[in-house]
Amino acid sequence: METNNQPLEKLNIFSFKGVQMRTFHLTWMAFFLCFFGWFGLAPLMTIVKTDLGLTKSQIGNIIIASVAATVIARIVIGKLCDSWGPRKTYAALMGICSIPVMTVGLVHSYEGFLLFRLAIGVIGASFVITQYHTSVMFDKKIVGTANAVAGGWGNLGGGITNMVMPLIFAGFIGAGYLPETAWRLAMIVPGVMLLLFAFLYYRYTKDTPSGNFDELPVAHSRSLKTKGSLAIAAKDPRTWALFLAYGACFGIEITFDNIAALYFFENFDTSLAVAGILAGTFGFMNLFARAVGGIVADKVGRKFGMMGKGRLLALLLALEGIGIAIFAQSGSITAAVISMLAFAMFLKMANGATYAIVPFVNRKAIGSVSGIVGAGGNVGAVLAGFLFKSSSISYSQAFVYIGAAIACIAAIVALVNFDKEEKMIPETSAFGTAEA
Q: What residue intervals traverse the membrane (predicted)?
């Protein structure tokens, strides 16, 4: 029978009972709100473009800036999770980042807007804390599923934002404000929500099922606060294999979110509304697809070990790469939608499978491993963004290149031995008592 201060062996998504499930729900909700702050400007960019007189090149730089800042932020935040604890780290991140979200409306130039977009991009590091916190709250048998569900539901914020922020903007227009003022006021809403939720998160979550880092017995606290965790994570080749893998799945997901509507609009002569709906379908698959990846990875892991999880991830990436290449060559909108849904399923399952492996690379450096791997997703997005910014290749050609690159990464992942033993086995790990 489970004790109240142990990682849970079951995920009951309808339960809020106990610190583990309460933390699970508050964690994905926090990540969901962070997406509102992170991508709240995206559906308003047509208004911002007119108001600030932005060029296509400047918009491209802004898109890249929105994900570039997250690369370094995720590595730093991962280290803070290991040393400071996820509860304080998440509350501080939401509280601090709510400031640029609320005040971005004060800018009136491209340079100022670019700097604010960089600052807001830091909130994308919230994903690392989300995965860390669910990793320590659930038993190794179910941790992949828990990570995938929390990550997937949080990612839904990206899709919902595209629907809600225009409504908030329209509300201010209805109240009599001009468009150039309404978009600025609209961004105050997600900023205030983030600030309020920072206090809720600090008040109602714990660092571990046993309590907060500063409340635990000295010996146990020291076993969790690992010195040099970033170096430990960086020296392990498995960390970098997962870094590449996450760049090939989540990195491409962010890129596709940014380009999908425009691609359908220009290539298949759809209306903006239809293009938006088709692009939104891609994002809404996070409701279940990432979770499926985590569930399958956990099942494969129980039967074939970590090596099995690694091979599953490689297979999903290979299928994703093939699907993207087929999508790029689609001659009709029907074929494009079908191939998009297919590669989206493999892509989002790969997201879930990646973070079903992350907690087991080194249990003494979960935050740092999660941070480096999470940064890989944004590095992938930045590199892909340059492809779509290029004037010498078409969007279809860019997708073909991306598909080929993903296939190469799949081959690399397939060759990595994820069953490698950890060099340091702690007396007490984040998953509870270490196995003999």
A: 26-47, 59-77, 89-108, 114-132, 153-177, 183-202, 240-265, 271-289, 310-328, 334-358, 365-386, 398-418
